[in-house]
Amino acid sequence: MKLSDLGERKLIERMGELLDIGDDAACIKIGDGFLVVSTDMIYRKTHILNEMSFAQAGHKIVSMCFSDIASMGAKPAGFLLSYGSADIDFADFDELIKGAKEQAERYGAGFIGGDTNETDELTLAGTALGFADKPVFRKGAKPGEVVGVTSDLGSAALGVKVLLEKMVPLSEIPADILQRTLDPEPRVREGILLGNYASAMMDISDSLAVSLHEIAERSRVRIEVRVENVPFSKSALELGDKFGIDILEQGLYGGGDYELLFTASEERWDELKDEFSRRDLVKVTKIGRVVEGSGASCVKDGKEFGIRREGYEHFR
After folding, report:
1. In which residue ranges of the chain is CATH 3.90.650.10 found?
2. If we measure between CA atoms, which residue out of 137, 132, 136 comes closest to residue 217?
3. Is the pLDDT confidence value at 124 over 90?
4. pLDDT tens across 218-277, in order?
5. What are the residues whose beta carbons fall under 8 Å from the beta carbon of 20, sequence distance 6 or more?
6. So what CATH class is 3-132?
7. Could you tell me the CA-to-CA distances from 160 to 47, 49, 255, 257, 282 in Å, in that order?
8. Nearest-5° angle of CA 278, CA 279, CA 282?
9. Residue 23 pLDDT
10. pLDDT at residue number 24
11. What single string gives the DSSP state of each residue in the chain?
12. What pLDDT, in 10s, does the model give residues 27-57?
């Protein structure tokens, strides 16, 4: 049996039989708080587009790791990078390392070390450390609560599709879609604030669909999403319409959005939304509700249909 016969999620399930895992990051109790630790990896052939600069690759590995820290309601404190590549120009290596350092420091964390090795393709493995008084896990959602997301969805997957299929020149892709595709930002400040409101939370980089199922399964509830409430940017809607791309499919199953999916009390929603606005954070949108049952579904035009547990997955 090969790893491709199982896929990444089955591999993680197997690891879960041996280890206590199941959230975006690990939590270690220290004194009155928690040390929150996450690791992630990107590889030239699967994560780093040709249009991405070395600085953007450095930014991205930090953003991926910090998104996991943010999804736990934690504040990043440190970042380590293990670097591998062939014998490239030193200037490119230097640009990447400076990019990673800049991104870590942007969120108040130190770039505190790492390792280097020689590999056939550019490979980056990042480890992020953070602290939280009370981490937010994937389990904790309760019937009667609302389901929310930060910012807009689908832009990153749409951007990847447009670039890979060379639908338009790079210069004609809207700037906000390019930024989501090549240089995503983690929702660190938003995650820290949501730590005061969310009963369950995770990032949606693998896809909204996967994350909905993950929270539903871990919390032993069902999540219903109203299609008309799923937020998309004006640029994404226009670009999708131009090329006949189903933007809902991109938003549900595309992945690459380093946004946060969370559940919270209906009674505190207005307070939460006002606090986001007061602190000049990205918008939050109520996209559905938590009910009794299992799984995840969408409601469109009064009809309910199931959401496939589908998104980005390695070894597939």
Report:
1. 146-306
2. 137
3. yes
4. 999 999 999 999 999 999 999 999 999 999 999 999 989 999 999 999 999 999 999 999
5. none
6. alpha beta
7. 10, 8, 10, 11, 23
8. 100
9. 81
10. 84
11. --HHHH-HHHHHHHHHHHS---SSSEEEEETTEEEEEEEEEEEHHHH--TT--HHHHHHHHHHHHHHHHHHTT-EEEEEEEEEEESS--HHHHHHHHHHHHHHHHHTT-EEEEEEEEE-SS-EEEEEEEEEESS---S----TT-EEEEES--SHHHHHHHHHHTT-S-GGGS-HHHHHHHHS----HHHHHHHTTTEEEEEE-SS-HHHHHHHHHHHHT-EEEEEGGGS---HHHHHHHHHHT--HHHIIIII-----EEEEE-GGGHHHHHHHHHHTT---EEEEEEEESSSEEEEEETTEEEEPP-----TT-
12. 999 999 999 999 999 998 888 999 999 999 9
Which residues have C-beta within 8 Å of that of residue 283, sequence separation ≥ 6?
150, 151, 231, 276
Phi, psi torsion values for 183, nearest 5 degrees: -145, 60
The ranges of the chain annotated as CATH 3.30.1330.10 are 3-132
Q: Look up residue 110 and give its two tokens.
A: 């130190």
CA distance 150 to 182: 19
Q: What is the pLDDT of residue 315?
A: 38
Which homologous superfamily is 146-306 in?
A: PurM-like C-terminal domain (3.90.650.10)
Spatial contact of 48 and 97, defined as CB atoms under 8 Å apart: no
Site of tokens 């991109």: 250
